[in-house]
């Protein structure tokens, strides 16, 4: 487990093998499957006792709430005091965290029939259960009942043991299989369903909306989060619990700091079949770039600058790719919106910066967003309140001192303090090969692109950090309008970034390749 426990924030775990030969044989598990199921059930947080599956459940709940963990601390906040919660069968660590709430109700299976809940409609903001569904004769009926008792905007979060390399099957007609201790096999531990990668189809069949998957050490920890059938199809962050209006999930806010972020950023290799699930991007597509030694060193340097791992591997991968390509072109590098220097530090590490002979111009207010340059639309959407919270959280720096200390490793850089567009004239570069724009506010971002465009060399790279990221719509609209005036378009990336490559200008008459051939034959 690389991240802190999402229940208590602990960083140490205990491990044990929990499967026994009879269950392995009944489930026909391969050695790899045995390993990740043992990890799912046998790895526990040393501090709170939560298993990997419980950690995944906690992450699903926190994502719906729009909060960063640990869950135990989040639930102490006044805003969640009135939450109405139904806990079906309990989950170590998660149940104890919710048990302090007045609106918490525990209903243990099988004493409480999940296929026919004796609870009124629209009763709870949150219903959760963990590794219970496989023991229910009719799991679809149980899920429908859980959704029935949800209030509008409520959420069902649950885990179930899944073998990801196969399809689900019923155990009707097969020898009885039980979970629990191999020495005591109570009838309620009998398994009716073995779930596979198609478990999501069960949720679709019952009409659940806004399906969201959370993982911990995939494929060991999997948790699902869904809304009521009559809810509009929305993302997990939009379909969070009914809460005071000011409670909004801050997009792009970093998770809690890791105990040793630099070491943890490079400690585990990925395989071609691993699920990538970070920074609002989940995909099974190959991401073995995370194994590349050069990428790992560069990413670790970015983590060192930020003093935490934001889990931005794919975004940084895109930035490093663009920077490496730009290093083949003439011109300096510019970043507008440096903050602690995560991306720019990674780039400078990758390129062995002082050997390039270029200057990296690093611009930031180093005090958050300047309210003078906020658009009316962004102000109406609450950007200034979000800016205040981001400063209070420590994500935005409040002086340039940290950046100066971080970049002191390299000679060829220039830190420019102040608001864009006022500081753009201080960029002395006549040619620019790489431009990164990440100011989280539309007017200064558009101003930077428009002002610096004439200095960008042909083929130069412009990376827009939040162009397509959820919650930054005004930046996209502004950049699209600016790009149209410049005669280009923005490539929208699944990482939330946008990319522009400046096209070459038309050659002067008599200077193209055809003219060169004619001159050759005339000679």
TrEMBL record:
Keyword Thylakoid: no
Family matches, as InterPro entries: Methyltransf_11, SAM-dependent_MTases_sf, TylF_MeTrfase
Domain annotation Methyltransferase type: ranges: 104-158
Gene Ontology MF annotations: methyltransferase activity
Any single GO BP term: methylation
Record bears the keyword Transmembrane helix: no
Region Disordered: start-end pairs: 233-256
Database matches in CDD domains: AdoMet_MTases
Keywords annotated in UniProt: Methyltransferase, Transferase
PANTHER family named among the record's database cross-references: MACROCIN O-METHYLTRANSFERASE
UniProt name for this protein: SAM-dependent methyltransferase
Organism field: Ancylobacter polymorphus
């Amino acid at each position: 487990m690389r991240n802190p426990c999402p229940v208590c924030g602990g960083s140490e775990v205990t491990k044990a093998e929990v499967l026994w030969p009879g269950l392995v044989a009944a489930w026909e598990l391969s050695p790899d499957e045995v390993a990740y199921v043992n990890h799912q059930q046998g790895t526990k947080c040393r501090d709170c006792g939560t298993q990997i599956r419980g950690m995944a459940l906690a992450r699903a709940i926190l994502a719906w709430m729009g909060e960063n963990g640990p869950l135990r601390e989040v639930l102490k906040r006044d805003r969640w005091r009135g939450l109405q919660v139904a806990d079906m069968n309990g989950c170590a660590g998660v149940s104890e965290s919710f048990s302090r709430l007045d609106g918490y109700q525990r209903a243990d299976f099988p004493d409480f029939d999940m296929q026919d809940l004796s609870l009124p409609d629209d009763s709870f903001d949150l219903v959760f259960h963990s590794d219970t569904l496989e023991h229910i004769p009719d799991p679809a009926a149980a899920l429908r009942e859980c959704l029935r008792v949800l209030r509008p905007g409520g959420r069902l979060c649950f885990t179930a043991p899944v073998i990801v390399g196969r399809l689900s099957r019923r155990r009707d007609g097969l020898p009885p299989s039980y979970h629990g201790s191999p020495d005591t096999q109570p009838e309620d531990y009998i398994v009716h369903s073995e779930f596979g990668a198609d478990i999501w189809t069960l949720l679709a069949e019952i009409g659940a909306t806004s399906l969201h998957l959370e993982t911990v050490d995939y494929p060991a920890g999997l948790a699902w989060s869904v809304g009521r059938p009559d809810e509009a199809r929305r993302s997990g962050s939009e379909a969070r619990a009914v809460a005071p209006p000011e409670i909004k999930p801050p997009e792009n806010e970093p998770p809690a700091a890791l105990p040793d972020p630099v070491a943890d950023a490079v400690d585990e290799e990925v395989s071609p079949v691993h699920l990538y699930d970070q920074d609002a991007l989940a995909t099974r597509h190959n991401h073995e770039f995370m194994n590349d030694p050069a990428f790992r060193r560069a990413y670790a340097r970015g983590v060192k600058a930020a003093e935490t791992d934001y889990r931005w591997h794919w975004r940084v991968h895109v930035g490093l790719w663009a920077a490496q390509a730009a290093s083949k072109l003439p011109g300096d590098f510019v970043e507008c919106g440096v903050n602690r220097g995560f991306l720019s530090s990674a780039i400078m590490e990758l390129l062995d910066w002082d050997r390039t002979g270029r200057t990296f111009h690093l611009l930031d207010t180093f005090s958050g967003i300047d309210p003078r340059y906020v658009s009316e639309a962004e102000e109406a959407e609450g950007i200034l309140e979000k800016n205040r919270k981001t400063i209070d959280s420590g994500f935005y720096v409040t002086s340039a001192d940290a950046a100066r200390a971080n970049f002191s490793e390299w000679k060829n850089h220039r830190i420019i303090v102040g608001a864009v567009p006022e500081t753009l004239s201080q960029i002395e570069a006549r040619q620019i090969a790489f431009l990164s724009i990440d100011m989280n506010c539309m007017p200064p971002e558009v101003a930077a692109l428009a002002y610096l465009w004439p200095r960008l060399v042909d083929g130069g790279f412009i990376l827009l950090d939040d162009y397509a990221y959820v919650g930054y719509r005004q930046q996209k609209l502004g950049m699209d309008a600016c790009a149209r005036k410049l005669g280009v378009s923005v490539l929208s990336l699944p990482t939330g970034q946008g990319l522009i490559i400046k096209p070459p200008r038309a050659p002067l008459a008599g200077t193209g390749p055809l003219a060169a051939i004619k001159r050759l034959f005339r000679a």
